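step=encode ok
step=design start
structure_in=
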């Protein structure tokens, strides 16, 4: 495969979008969400690609607990000797975990065009579905994404009133209703005990019937008892916030707040305690001041090769209630620099160079010859 000459240009965003629309797709690998692009006459022998910038996704996992009073909670101790019924309807939230991950998103200011000579058999470039460069002269397979487990909201139990007898429903006072319901609960317990000991007048004929009867007795007792004790249900949830840093460090930025009564709330909602994010470049490079000649040489260098990112390491820290809940190191493209793969390395037609990138960083992973 020949690859004799090429150069890159910064191109306007709208032109980049139009160019992508006309690029010839030699093959599509839908499972990995990648496309292969070849430079042909239809696109003026050019292939467009983008480099990413790093975004940080902060995910809060929480538990919501709902407690509801029973209709007869005032009589729980009198009739059932229950000393701790729920006496107030409450909803409380507990923050379980906070996690932070990095992800590459298209940097609209870093879209480039590789142009080949018309008499060149161009190599192909593998791009992500968003146009991020993945590989040159090779395929790329994204790791399988883990599908998050679906959150199952607990099903509501049966309506306890559906188990009430006509006598109970006709009772003239709340206290009398509570007394009759308590007696019904004791009868259910007695029936279960009789079946367990084999003393019931009508025993279930087989194992399946036994399980069914015992299940129904348990269900009725639980539903009726909840009219005194109240009910408590829990469900889990999560919320994700995205931060895209620039070249500057982030110092104690409030990402969101958390309230035990309201759960995850916005950063400007003072009802919750703040969750802070800090991000610090671990190896900041001093700003270079170039002479006119050096600027010209730099421009020439970046116009004749494939531009890629060299990210920097950053210290990421998330703090809540005075404690570090996340403390890790990560790569951030915005904190790094860019460099260029020169065209000479692609001149060997017998052994074409393969270049594999980290698409989420725009950095080189491997060069194979």
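sequence_out=
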């Amino acid at each position: 495969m020949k690859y004799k000459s090429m150069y890159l240009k910064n191109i306007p965003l709208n032109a980049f979008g139009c160019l992508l629309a006309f690029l010839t797709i030699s093959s599509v690998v839908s499972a990995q969400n990648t496309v292969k692009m070849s430079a042909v006459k239809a696109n003026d022998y050019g292939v467009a690609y983008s480099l990413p910038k790093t975004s940080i996704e902060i995910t809060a996992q929480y538990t919501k607990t709902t407690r509801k009073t029973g209709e007869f909670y005032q009589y729980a101790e009198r009739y059932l000797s229950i000393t701790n019924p729920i006496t107030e309807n409450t909803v409380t939230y507990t923050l379980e975990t906070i996690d932070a991950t990095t992800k590459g998103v298209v940097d609209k200011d870093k879209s480039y065009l590789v142009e080949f000579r018309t008499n060149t058999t161009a190599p192909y470039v593998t791009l992500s579905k968003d146009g991020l460069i993945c590989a040159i002269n090779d395929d790329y397979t994204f790791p399988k994404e883990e599908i998050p487990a679906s959150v199952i909201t607990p099903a509501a139990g049966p309506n306890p009133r559906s188990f009430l007898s006509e006598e109970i429903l006709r009772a003239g006072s709340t206290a009398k209703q509570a007394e009759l319901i308590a007696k019904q609960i004791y009868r259910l317990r007695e029936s279960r005990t009789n079946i367990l000991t084999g003393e019931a007048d009508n025993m279930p004929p087989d194992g399946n019937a036994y399980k069914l009867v015992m299940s129904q007795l348990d269900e009725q007792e639980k539903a009726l008892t909840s009219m005194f004790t109240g009910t408590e249900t829990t469900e889990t949830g999560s919320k994700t916030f995205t931060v895209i840093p620039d070249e500057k460090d982030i110092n104690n930025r409030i990402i969101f707040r958390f309230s035990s009564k309201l759960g995850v709330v916005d950063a400007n909602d003072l009802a919750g305690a703040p969750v802070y994010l800090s991000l610090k470049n671990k190896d900041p490079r001093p700003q270079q001041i170039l002479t006119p000649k050096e600027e010209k040489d730099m421009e020439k260098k970046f116009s004749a090769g494939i531009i890629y990112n060299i990210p920097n390491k950053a210290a990421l820290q998330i703090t809540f209630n005075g404690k570090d809940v996340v403390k890790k190191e990560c790569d951030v493209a915005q904190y790094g620099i860019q460099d260029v793969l020169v065209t000479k390395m692609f001149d060997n037609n017998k052994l074409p160079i393969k270049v594999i990138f980290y698409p989420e960083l725009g950095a080189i992973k491997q060069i194979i010859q």
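step=design ok
step=annotate ok -> Confidence is low (pLDDT under 50) at residues 1-32.
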